Amino acid sequence: MKSKVAGIIFIIGSLYYIIAEAISATFFNASLSTTYIFHTISELGIPNANSPLFWLMNSAFILIGLTLIFCNFYKFKDFIVKNRIIFYIFTLITGIGVIIVGLIHGGNPFTLGYHMLGAMMAILGGNIMLVLISRSMSEFENYQKITLILGIFGIIIFWVMFFNMENIYMPVFERLSVYTMIIWSFLTGVYLLIN
């Protein structure tokens, strides 16, 4: 029963994130393609005229953070056979980081540092967590291999983004490094339902 509950929550959390971002981007003060390519996810959460649905994007950040913390501690921990303490630590780093991003937007120069810290905790911490999970389960089958690939890809793209912050395509790098965790959340929901 706990697997089904956690699995459903993982799936709902990941789908809500994707849908909320798409709706927020649709109403952003730019075309949809321009928004996805040239505007960061964080911009969708800034409360100003450019993003009238900022609250929707921020709710997605908060929900996916809460989803990760709850599901990992509630059930997914049972699949972790080694490195469990580190798994808990990175779950909290990632989850709290995403929640910070949702609560403290990037448009205020006085709180921008906290927002950036939350983003780094969420993106880098989350992708490291995926690599850790893939090597901390009892088996190394398709699910673990996909988790490892997502984590490594996310880490590489994060560093590409980090060293190209002024690049006009930086928002693309940002999204790619975030989507690895959203994809993982959905796949993990399916994995928990099956197992």
Distance between the termini: 11 Å
Radius of gyration based on Cα positions? 16 Å
In total, the number of strands is 0
Strand content: under 5%
Helix content: over 70%
Overall 3D geometry?
Answer: globular
- What is the mean predicted local confidence, pLDDT? 96
Number of helices: 8
- Ranges where pLDDT stays below 50 over 5 or more residues in a row are none
Structure notes:
α1 (about 1-25) packs antiparallel against α4, α1 (about 1-25) runs antiparallel to α8 (about 170-195) and α4 packs antiparallel against α5. Helix content is about 75%, strand content about 0%. It contains eight helices and no strands. The chain starts with a helix and ends with a helix. With about 200 residues, the chain is mainly alpha-helical.
Question: Which features does this protein show?
Answer:
single chain; 195 residues; mainly alpha; 8 helices; globular
